[in-house]
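Q: My labmate handed me this sequence with no annotations at all. I'd like to see what the chain might look like in three dimensions before we decide whether it's worth expressing. Could you predict it?
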Amino acid sequence: MHPDHQSQSGPPHESAADETPVRRIVSGIQPSGRLHLGNFMGALKNWIELQKLYESFFFIADWHALTTNYEDTTAIRENIREMLVDWISLGLDPRQSTIFLQSDVLEHAELNLLLSMVTPVSWLERNPSYKDQQEQIKGRDLSTFGFLGYPVLMSADILLYRADHVPVGLDQLPHLELAREIARRLRHFYGPIVPEPLPLLTPTPRLLGLDGRKMSKSYKNCIYISDTAGEVWEKIRPMMTDPARVRRTDPGDPGKCPVFNLHESFSPKNVQQEMDAGCRTASIGCIDCKKILTTHIEKILAPAREKRHELLAEKGFLGQVLEEGAKKARAEAQRTMKDVRQAMRLPDGNLFA
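A: Here is what I predict for the chain of 353 residues:
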């Protein structure tokens, strides 16, 4: 735990059993569609391990989905359902983590509003992804208040739970630093209220898609968590490899092959070494290499697929997960908002008591 946490926000979180400090993390993902292997490697795999070590709050960021998809919200409910099923089927455990829907905890909106009052517009305009996304996402009007201010909502998501750490990749550090700056600005005006969350840098390998570009829904080059075994093979079988391997006897360079990139994430080290040597010496063909890759990807997807069927058949379970998660998250959020209102001298209860 950061040495300044206790002085900034009172005592650290404590375990009821032994009253030892418990580190807390928080993170969320937008429900923008089915999850793919890139999402798994970039976030979910880390979350599944971290939930064993930290008090964990993970939320489906449905309000964030509106920042770029506000014009058509027809799929948002289905996307929320699919995301929750993917999370749990892969190993995120409601018994270990608090899993909830962002919009079920209205304090996210309240803190977002209050933070927006103290956040300079210049901070938002210098956000590195603000102009980048406007240029990359074509055909949508992103000149909205919500899109400009989404880092403030993101800061509210984090600060609301007094997170000690936030699991991020290097590319996400600027967003977390803004949350830390906002926390410092609150402290400057109103005194210590919430801690400045520290980054928990987690490995986020760059996973290539079926066409050699980054795996992304927008490129339509994904292997989805919900794909059947047949669909996985039909996607991997025609994948491009090193262009130098025109014939079966031609040696190749694994560093130029998207298939080997997937081996590096999903196959054991000894298999990676065998595929590397086999490619360079042409002792293994590309189809055989792809079959071996599919076998190792299926070691992750097959159990998840079975769990997915169980979850969908268990009526009421998914709703119960979100309901119980929101109840726990709401209790923490209300505790924070009480302190925020008190520090900002806002009415909280009977004004004339």
